[in-house]
Design goal:
Elements: H1 4-20, E1 26-29, E2 33-37, E3 42-44, E4 47-50, E5 60-70, E6 75-85, E7 97-99, E8 109-111, E9 120-127, E10 132-142, E11 149-151, E12 156-157, E13 162-168, E14 177-183, E15 195-201, E16 206-214, E17 224-231, E18 236-244, E19 247-252, E20 255-258, E21 270-275, E22 278-280, E23 285-290, E24 293-297, E25 301-304, E26 315-319, E27 323-325, E28 335-338, E29 341-346, E30 351-352, E31 357-362, E32 365-367, E33 372-377, E34 380-384, E35 387-390, E36 399-406, E37 411-413, E38 417-419, E39 421-433, E40 437-439, E41 444-453, E42 458-462, E43 475-478, E44 487-495, E45 498-501, E46 505-510, H2 513-557, E47 561-564, E48 593-596, E49 634-635, E50 703-704
Parallel strand pairs: 2-10, 12-19, 30-39, 40-46
Antiparallel strand pairs: 1-4, 3-8, 5-6, 5-9, 7-8, 9-10, 11-13, 13-16, 14-17, 15-16, 17-18, 19-22, 20-21, 21-25, 23-24, 23-26, 26-27, 28-32, 29-31, 31-35, 33-34, 33-36, 36-37, 36-38, 39-41, 41-43, 42-44, 44-45, 44-46, 47-48, 49-50
GO molecular function: carbohydrate binding; CD4 receptor binding; protein phosphatase binding; sialic acid binding
Protein name: B-cell receptor CD22
Membrane topology: Single-pass type I membrane protein
């Protein structure tokens, strides 16, 4: 039902439009709604165009007030305010409704005065020869003058040009009105000169407006701005409109306030606050410029714990969209003297022994400035005063110097200034470690000790013969120390200022117990060796004489005898077996045994004759290139009966040592001569082919083979 009513009304209007007009040919332009008030006038700008292919003129114009269409008569009914037909008559000033247009395109209408009864709508009926048109024009007529509208820009900012518009939806030529501006707190009316009035009378809009352009100030924030409609003829205000200026601006009159009531000293706690008088929009945060950096915080109070002596001037800013900074504030912190230092005034370069020296105590700042000066050397008080002088400085004046500066707040000490006095080496001496008497084999360190500034560049060492040892270190290390190192040593020290030699220092090296023991042992051993050599010499001499005598006997018997001398060793145990062929006795006592040598012969050899009839046969082989005598091996004499002749036809030397075994075996034959018990005889015969000689009684044959 709610949708059906408007739909039927729209359908009726469309049918009316199609029935009583030619929509494809007429085009009428005018303001959609016109506004006026009782006693004023109405100016209706209007144009029309007819697209018919002909140039027909308008033949009749009728103006209805609040017309209606009668379905029965198929015509419009209503109060006719104006009606004119061809031929047209000119506008009549005495008529309330005037047609100011023409018969081709202009359909402008003027109503003066307008009545309250005219409120509603007007119908403009235009008729040509072959077509006609009904145009509706809305008319809003009030009993009182129309209200004004003040149009503001989206945002008004301080010092930024802003344009405000006072708008009246009315304009009527001949009706004299004026728009005026007034601002609270501006009694001089300076805004009047900045406003311009514009009038619009078009088919689109009808209005009268005043544009005010100015640069608002933050002091105008919250003030009332009024636009008034004046009737110039009656000199009275018809209506007005007022707005509250919302001027956006940064915080104003920002100040930094120190809340501490007393004088601030270094280390105190300081409280500051950031204040302002006006801000639009309100302050959202505060920024503190403290010690070269910015700190942001939401509240206006800043607390500084243990304020520094060199705290810089502080300022704050109150911020909304913009930040406004307060003037800087100096905390005027009181503190003891700072950066106290000792300066060398004379000389400007290095200090040598005997120079004149002047030191001065300075500082960078102090609050308050009234100060006193004091001096200390190596922690011991010297004097009071700003300067410290030495007419002729000595090495004993070298040391660490401090100066003190104090005021009513406190006292400050400078860093130690080391006074270095340059001088050649002095008090030179040689120190021996661990002591000047050292046992050989140990370690001795000689150190060249001196006092020099600058330090010694080179050390030179000399011995007790004044010979340069070509050692240039401060320490002379003797490791291990020897007896030959005993003596006096001295050193020489050199720096850029001179060269000095030390007095000699004596190093004594004594024998170690081991050396003493070795020397005693060598002496005793030498004596024993001498005695032993003498003993053996005597014994060898006796043996030699005995051998020489025995060699003479052998040579007289066969001419081929020789003697063998061997060391005496322990005898091997005797065998207890019954079938033993004899006992092995490789040892001969210190006696000389003789053997008669006879070389074996071959087929062409002639056997030698001579010798004893009873033999104990032994065979030894000695290589002609060797002088050693090899021990023999024994073989039973009974095997000789079955053996053939010896294959060895070389001129080999065979010998035998004959000595009767004391246990009765057959190794040796004890000599029958008791007076020459140590000499044994043996005769070697050739064991060739043929008949073996008969074994003599009491002679046993033993074959010895290497």
């Amino acid at each position: 039902m709610h949708l059906l009513g408007p739909s039927l009304l729209l359908l009726a209007n469309i049918l009316e439009y199609l029935a009583f007009s030619d929509s494809s040919k007429w085009r009428v332009e005018h303001p959609h709604t016109l506004y006026s008030w009782e006693g004023a006038c109405v100016w209706i700008p209007c144009t029309y165009t007819v697209y018919s292919g002909r140039k027909d003129e308008l033949e009749e114009l009728i103006v209805y007030r609040n017309y209606k269409y009668d379905e029965a008569t198929k015509s419009f009914e209503g109060l006719i305010l104006y009606n004119d037909t061809k031929p047209w008559k000119g506008p009549d000033p005495l008529e309330r409704v005037q047609f100011l247009g023409d018969q081709r395109s202009n359909c402008t209408i003027h109503i003066n005065p307008v009545l309250e009864e005219d409120d509603g709508w007007l119908g403009l009926r235009m008729i040509k020869k072959n077509s006609k048109w009904m145009e509706r024009i809305d008319l809003n007529v009030s009993k009182t003058p129309l209200p004004l509208q003040i149009q503001l820009p989206p945002e008004i900012q301080e010092f930024r040009e802003a344009t405000l518009t006072c708008l009246l939806n009315f304009s009527c030529p001949g009706y004299n009105i004026q728009l005026q501006w007034s601002l609270e707190g501006d009694p001089g009316g300076s805004l009047k000169e900045r406003a311009i009035t514009l009038t619009s009378l078009t088919t689109k809009t009808i209005s009268t407006q005043s544009k005010l352009t100015f640069q608002p100030r933050w002091t105008q924030h919250g003030k009332n701005l009024t636009c008034q409609l004046w009737d110039r003829k009656a000199e009275q205000m018809l209506s007005k409109a007022t707005v509250l200026l919302d001027v956006k601006h940064a915080p104003k009159e920002v100040t930094t306030v120190i809340e501490n009531p007393m004088r601030i000293q270094e280390g105190d706690t300081v409280t500051l606050s950031c204040n302002y008088s006006s801000s639009n929009p309100g302050v959202t945060q505060y920024v503190w410029n403290f010690q070269g950096s910015q700190m942001k915080q939401p509240h206006e109070v800043l607390i500084i714990q243990k304020v520094a002596w060199n705290t810089r001037p502080i300022t704050c800013a109150a911020c909304n969209q913009w930040c406004s900074w307060a003037p800087i504030v100096n905390l005027d912190v009181q503190y003891a003297p700072k950066d106290v230092r000792v300066q060398q005034i004379i000389p400007s370069s290095e200090i040598r022994s005997g120079n004149r020296v002047r030191l001065e105590c300075n500082f960078s700042s102090s609050r308050p400035r009234d100060v006193r000066f004091f001096w200390k050397k190596n922690g011991i008080f010297l004097k009071e005063g700003k300067e410290l002088s030495f007419d002729s400085v000595s090495p004993e004046d070298a040391g660490n110097y401090n100066c003190f500066v104090n005021n009513s707040i406190g006292q400050t000490m400078s860093e130690a200034r080391t006074l270095q006095v340059l001088y050649a080496p002095r008090m030179l001496h040689v120190a021996i470690s661990p002591k000047d008497q050292v046992m050989e084999g140990k370690k001795a360190i000689l150190t060249c000790e001196s006092d020099a500034n600058p330090p010694v560049l080179q050390y030179t060492w000399f011995d007790w013969k004044n010979q340069n040892l070509h050692h240039y270190d401060q320490m002379l290390r003797l490791d291990p120390v020897k007896i030959q190192h005993s003596g006096a040593y001295r050193c020489e020290a050199t720096n850029q200022l001179g060269r000095v030699q030390s007095p000699p220092s004596t190093l004594t090296v004594y024998y170690s117990p081991e050396t003493i023991g070795r020397r005693v042992a060598v002496g005793v051993g030498f004596c024993l060796a001498t005695l032993l050599l003498a003993f053996w010499g005597v014994k060898l001499q006796r043996s030699w004489k005995r051998i020489r005598s025995q060699q003479g006997l052998q040579e007289s018997s066969s001419g081929q005898s020789f003697f063998v001398r061997k060391q005496k060793v322990r005898r091997a145990p005797l065998s207890e077996e019954p079938n033993s062929l004899g006992c092995y006795n490789p040892v001969m006592e210190d006696a000389v045994s003789y053997a008669a040598l006879r070389f074996p012969v071959g087929d062409n050899d002639t056997p030698r004759t001579g010798g004893s009839g009873s033999l104990k046969q032994e065979e030894f082989t000695q290589k002609s290139s060797s002088a050693a005598i090899h021990p023999p091996s024994f073989r039973d004499a009974r095997t000789l009966e079955t053996e053939g002749p010896s294959p060895n036809t070389d001129d080999t030397v065979t010998y035998s040592v004959l000595k009767k075994c004391r246990v009765g075996d057959y190794e040796n034959v004890l000599p029958n001569s008791p007076e020459d018990e140590g000499i044994h005889y043996s005769e070697l015969v050739h064991l060739g082919v043929g008949e073996r000689p008969q074994a003599q009684e009491a002679v046993e044959y033993v074959t010895l083979k290497h």
